[in-house]
Amino acid sequence: MDFVINNWVLFAVAFASGALLLWPMVQGGARGGLSATQAVQLINREKAVVVDVCEADEFAQGHIGGARHIPLNQLEQRLPDAVKNKALPVLLVCASGARANRALGVAKKLGYDKAQVLAGGLKAWKDANLPLEKA
Q: Once rounded to an integer, what is the mean pLDDT over residues 33-47?
């Protein structure tokens, strides 16, 4: 017990290091993003609607096949027309995943309870060697 008392600083540093190492996993789990493989399964098995929230020039450079293009700043107005059935899963995608995470809040607010985000965005899709369409 004397060892612990005399070296409390070492224990505090070890605890802080462990917490910092685990933080990215906790952070990633809170976002609830899907991997590229899980996204493909959602599209194929549950007929998920892919909504790309990138800007027009990014969408033209490459997007997931069959994706509907709705820029983030227009999502609240255009999503109800693009995806009329709120029971279908909606997969939100952008270049890195950051805008899609913001879009997730909008989609949930509009009643799309099955909306999800592609973790890592199109970069993760490309890294998984999955195909892109160009407009």
A: 93
